[in-house]
Design goal:
Radius of gyration of chain A: 21 Å
CATH superfamily of the largest domain in chain A: NAD(P)-binding Rossmann-like Domain
Number of strands of chain A: 9
Structural class of chain A: alpha/beta
Shape of chain A: globular
Largest sheet of chain A: 6 strands, parallel
Oligomer: homodimer
Helix content of chain A: 40-55%
CATH class of the largest domain in chain A: Alpha Beta
Largest interface: A-B, 96 and 96 residues
């Protein structure tokens, strides 16, 4: 049970956490803070938050838990804004899609990584964004990855884990660097590919036919290209190293496949496709 | 109403057509032909076909409509096998995912493209293959693209269109080359990318974590990598030119995106992602 939760960025992620914790009766009071008053008013009307302020320092005061659900590019300035306004017992956590950059931002702002800062990443989302897209069950059966560092307090980890469990989420733990490499492969690279694919298709001169005859493959494949461009711009920059590493591996692979197609190498094309199918079937098919 | 329909390749595509036409009461008799007797026995047990033969010439005799639902690489040899066994009124159609190569195969076998050959492509599928995956409603509300050539008979087109409409499918018409370019972009390239992505990921050394934390993006994106490798090997070879053209455009685009990420070019990354999102939202979002 949390007395006061303060949420920075009451959009899809922050709003859905608020609605889930309201539904679970897990918070006495939820305070919202963002740059846009109209969004905060909407969040009040939707019953996600109890009150709001546009002043970050004021929002942090009295909070037992502070949750940062803003684009990665805004994390550092908010940490700066709340520095000096947190109570000694306040726990800070976030929802950033890349962890090294947020941990580094905390180190820069506080001089050291606070033991009460618990870096975290809920693996959930929708293509729609904003508090109007928030739903109380967004996190049910979804994973939330905590990436504590060496000096993160066990009590703080437990508080954040319990908060997420109250939403129906399942807790997992990874190292900061491991998280960033795994997410670069499972989420960041696919988003970059989807954006690039739709962009490529849009230049073909027969874009209407392409969308008209888009079968399941293209539809599934391109769905994530409808995601929030600001969020994905920030992720590409903040997790740049891991994304570039994965992108380079992917481009080498694609060049290899291109050569096999160019040479009509039936045997090697079959082997490559068959290998990919067997990996995916073994690892994921049962969970589709 | 068709008196005798002969289906070559009674797997997912051929079997689903058979089940749909049975359900609609549209065929008096459905004959199956394939290389594997066990598959044909299964098709009889599942009620998809009435009888079968392993002899292609015999299968073609007496057929009003012959439907080729075999991998692209097998089209030409079946056309050769049935040459001389077709009645003067028999209509031949197919389900090949690329059309130029099938049309060319028909030209080579028959000396000219027969007016009673209607090249076609039902835009439907599942990751599972084989007649055990066949379902009567596979084609309901799906598009079937007909790609008739200049001398294709209008009566033959009407017969094939009516057969597909009996399954609940919707008919569309494209030129052969236009079909191959559009499908290269909407279906063939995404399949190549999905196979390449899973193959890349399988080499990372943390493949278990990747599948464990695979969010919706990766799952949607990689689903088509569970497709039949034989079918996709054949498509890559038979529609090679259009696939390579699309692949080259995609790789140029990806190289451009890579450079923007490498340079942390916030403005251009945002513009590119925002452009892709707006295109997809405008063209497809309402149909998700």
């Amino acid at each position: 049970m949390i007395n006061q939760l303060t949420i920075f960025g009451v959009g899809l992620i922050g709003g859905s956490l608020a609605l889930a914790l309201k539904k679970a009766g897990y918070c006495r009071r939820i305070v919202g803070c963002s740059r846009r008053e109209s969004h905060l008013q909407q969040a009040v009307e939707l019953g996600a938050i109890d009150s709001y302020t546009l002043d970050a320092g004021e929002a942090a005061e009295g909070a037992d838990v502070v949750f940062l659900a803003v684009p990665l590019g805004a994390m550092k300035s908010i940490l700066s804004d709340i520095d000096g306004h947190l109570s000694a017992e306040a726990i800070v956590t976030d929802a950033g899609s890349s962890k090294a950059s947020v941990v580094e931002a905390a180190r820069e702002v506080f001089g050291t990584i606070p033991s009460r800062f618990v870096p975290a990443h809920p693996i959930a989302g929708r293509e729609k964004s904003g508090v109007t897209a928030a739903v109380a069950d967004l996190y049910v059966d979804h994973k939330v990855i905590l990436t504590p560092v060496e000096n993160t307090s066990a009590a703080a980890i437990n508080t954040v884990a319990a908060m997420w469990e109250a939403t129906g989420a399942k807790i997992a733990t990874l190292g900061v660097e491991q998280h960033d490499r795994v997410l670069a492969a499972t989420s960041h690279l696919p988003h970059v590919l989807a954006y690039a694919l739709v962009d490529t298709v849009s230049r073909t001169g027969y874009v209407d036919e392409i969308f008209q005859f888009a079968a399941g493959g293209f539809r599934d494949f391109s769905r994530i290209a409808s995601s929030d461009p600001t969020m994905w711009r920030d992720i590409c920059i903040e997790n740049r190293a891991a994304i570039l590493e994965n992108l380079d591996h992917f481009q080498s692979e694609l060049t290899k496949v291109r050569e096999l197609i160019h040479q009509s190498d039936e045997a090697k094309l079959f082997d490559l496709f068959d290998h990919a199918k067997s990996i995916r079937d073994a690892k994921i098919a049962n969970r589709d």
